[in-house]
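protien #1 (seq + structre)
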Amino acid sequence: MALAGIIGPGLLVGAGGALANGGPASLLIGFGVIGIIAFSLMQSLGEMTTLYPSGGAFTGLADRFVDKAFGVAVGWNYFIIWVAVLANEYNVICSVLTYWTDRVPLWGWFLIFWFVFLGFQMLGVTAFGEAEFWLAILKLAELTACFIFAIIHAAGGMIRQDEPLGFRYWHDPGPSSTTLPGFRGIATVFVFCSTFYAGVESIAVAATETKNPARAVSLATRQVLWRIIFVYMGTHGIPVYAIIFTNLFGALSMMNISTSAGKAYSYIVNLSDVSTLLVWGAISFTHIRFRSAWAYQRRSVHELPFKSLWYSWNAYFGLFANVFLAFVQGWTTLSPFNAGNFVDAYVLLPLFPIVYFGYKWWNGTKYWRLEEIDLNHGRRRDLDAAKKSVDDDLAYGRLKKKQTIWRKLARNF
């Protein structure tokens, strides 16, 4: 689910716009940079969630290691990410069907799929999880087929194809966009790339349900379905009102009536891009706070079932890179200044501090000092049991060694 959940018709529509705005080189650079940041995020999240498996995932970790208000701000930004993804899926699928037939209006297709999807989600976690599993496999297979078709087409293997395409378009018009060359073109694709990567964090969250935390992260991609079910849905039943409320935001796709599907996709994706970067940055900051408290309270890193690579460089890189990109991703709207695009790119940037300080002021939450952070509550019981088992084994080994020495001495005398 985490691997294929973001793959949908919106991917191809968004890729077309990103390719036109930034060029193929910008897409490769954008995916590479965001991929490195995603790797950093996974390291931070993997270390914390394998030690503290909780239903609240990284929002709960933000509560206990930073501030309750900080966790609330992270949670609402994460909600916005998936609301935007949902609206864009409605947007694209309705647009595609309208292209093939005009007998049903755009809003008609939306209502049809809205009730179908809503009813499907109400069936419960068993039906939802099983369908998501098979749909994920189907989407990956279709995407693989698309890649194979593209390679064959570029190589000139299609029927009635006069010549191979090869790297023709890489040379003309070139690897960079002619309208937005250089870093300006790269900055425009960060929006699309970061949105496409959104969701990788759920793999590390799902890994917390394994019995052996040392192997959890490496096995997560192969055993992700039931982990997702246990972590996200195993407790809080069917959240009927939350599902209905979230699906109502699918109506954002109806802006497609007054604009094209591609423009509507860009508008909606821009809403989620800043939230994605801020949530990722918040996870890195939460990890820094966790490690700081761990060291301050004189805990050993050897107690951690999964240790993040290259801490603290990796965590600080994730923090600053995400915050930097959150501010940079819409800078092309400044010159020449476009008020509409500027608002679309940055409208959600102040949401995080507004929610944080507003909730903090209203509820009087506290920013935890390092000595106040509770590092014991919620720890995996099997880790404590495993540690006790290791200690017992070591004690038994020392006792047996002593007995063996005395037996040798007894035989010599």
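ok now protien #2
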Amino acid sequence: MGPKQANANEGNEKKKHMMTIEMKHEIIEKHNSGIRVTELGHQYERSTSTICTNFKKKDAIKSIKPSKGVTILSKLCSDIHDKMERLLLLWIKEKQLAGDSITKIILCEKGWMD
């Protein structure tokens, strides 16, 4: 028996490139101004199906109001995550107003307690 042949896709897997919220907004606006899907695909180095998916979800994309500092949202984000994040930020603000310092360890413990 000869040596095993490597899988044809091994090492050639496409890396998933997430799109920022700003990029999705730009794509929607450019398409609304008349730029074709294929041109947008080339410009943003994305497939035409990815560009079209953005148009199908444009109402949801426009309604997104991410927390400060968040630029990329994945499918894992949900209303529960958003609510949890807002509650955590509220807790942090309360602690800061009380003059308490917050460390990474304290944040991790808070996550396990509640």
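Residues 22 and 71 are 7 Å apart (CA to CA).
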